[in-house]
Amino acid sequence: MPSVLPRARPDLSRRDAGLRELMDDPGCDLAALERTYARFDLVNSLVAGWSATYRHRIRPLAATGRPLSLLDVGCGGGDVARALARWAQRDGIDLRITGIDPDARAHRWASARTARWAVRHPRAAPPAFRRVTSRELVTAGETFDVVVSNHLLHHLDPGPVRELVADSERLAGRLVVHNDLVRSPAAYRLYAVGVLPLAAGSFLRTDGLRSLRRAYLPHELRELAGPAWAVGPGSFGHQQLVQDRSLRVHTRPPR
């Protein structure tokens, strides 16, 4: 019986920036891409830790009678945005979510999937999806209370990470949480086996393993983001690049 583990464990001591994920190829198999988007709902609910992030970071920002705006950057198929909308509706929070992704395929999928989702969740405010970049929103002068992303940072080389950090600082009034993978042998080997039941006909396994090889280590993210940002642990195999302005104590400067 052939092994389900990778034939050779890659060197994870350094980031493999030369790898590209299959789903990032504009000419990739569209059916496989859409299967990948469809299965992100389950995969991210199992591994990405957004339920805890919502409870501990986003929900405490809500105030009675005041809407809370949230931007999901690089939202892909929109699964995180839909989950946040469902939890907010359950908790009676007026959370107004915008998901952005410049990829036309992601925008089309997220919009169609969410239209069907809204029929099943009539009391939840459905996320709105836009095919724009964070830089375009900055240029337009738009702002949000909260800015988040999920599994976006590892797609970006250092220059674009710095640009995203700068955009996030200008777009977010209260909180930024960029949730991403941590490059590690344990996560690599566990994901290689654990994703198999869900991977058939999709890019989940190949791209997930490539993602882990492209992921940053915590100290690498700290160096890219600068001293105004914190890097802390997320769920297993994850880290979070955070700027939480709601924790800052504002005092009146002396005259």
TrEMBL record:
One of its GO terms (biological process) is methylation. GO terms for molecular function: methyltransferase activity. Keywords: Methyltransferase, S-adenosyl-L-methionine, Transferase. The keyword Methyltransferase applies. Pfam families: Methyltransf_23 (PF13489). NCBIfam families: PRK06202.1. This is Uncharacterized protein.
